[in-house]
User: Fold these one by one.
Assistant:
Number 1:
Amino acid sequence: MKFLEDALAIEQELGRKEGEARHLLNLGIVFQQQGKFKKAMKCYNDTLIIHKEYGSKEGEAAALVNIGLLFKFQGKLEEALQFHQKALAIHKKLKYKDGEAADLENISLILYDQGKYEEALKSLKMSFDIFDRLGIHIKSAVTLRNLGLMHIKLAEKKQWEKNCKLAKDYLELASKIAMREEIYEIIDSIQETLELLRLICY
């Protein structure tokens, strides 16, 4: 924390706005982890202002994403959704597909929490399609795991047989990708979700 604050002060003193924005964003992340949400939000908003002023669209999108994540963490889903949608619009304009896919995944999780299940699944499938085309295997596997988890939760609400089958298909594909690509850090998570599938569906 002290290092970040000192680095920020140096960038501000030298008038280096790019460095100032970078350190503000990192400082905001630390404040958020510490539960100091007002300070975190101020850092994110200050970052956003700098990037808007100096025309850095990538930086602007990064600030918007962090604001959206903070709002979601606080349970302010509608505000979170708006900021992730703004980030998505920028990433689409920049043709930054990795960012676009991440935004779609964030949006899907918010939509699910809002009870908009069909919209959530549509957004998450779009996210997977992009990650898959880009060959980003770890993100493809994580997205498939999330699709499986969503269908398990939906099976408890409606269309039990259909959702159980879809969950099984997605999770088996996620497991196949993780094993093939030796993505060991998510294999346990996928196996835990498969255990939940067996508990709910079989």
Number 2:
Amino acid sequence: MLMAAHLEIPVLRPVIEGARYDLVLDLDRQFLRVQCKLARHLSGVLRVTLRTNRCTPRGYVTSCYSAEEVDVITAYSHELHRAFLIPIDEAEGRRGIHLRLEPTLNNQVQGIKWARDYEFATMIERLRSNPSHEPRSRCVYTCEPTLGL
């Protein structure tokens, strides 16, 4: 992920397929499981589809992401050449999310998710500096002593 490279964040890719996340970001004290999505620009709004479709032995399955599977969703807009990071707490169980670039026609302010609040670099800085904004699930690795060594 190019945005992570610009911020000097190590990006890890799974060795095997089948995980619900596409990559892992190493933020020094935590690993974030990331699902990558495309953000489509439509009339002042970025639309991010959060459904996933896959074929299983039982047939075609459509589902949404959960905190058990991923920690964050990243969305990249080709039109804007910008990336956005959405915590799973705000996306879990949803089929899609809209990030607003321009004011609404009716001037609604409440309940609006502004794209500027989810800019990739801004969200990474928030995650690094304020533990209360960290995703609720973690990839935690521990080492246990081996007997006989």
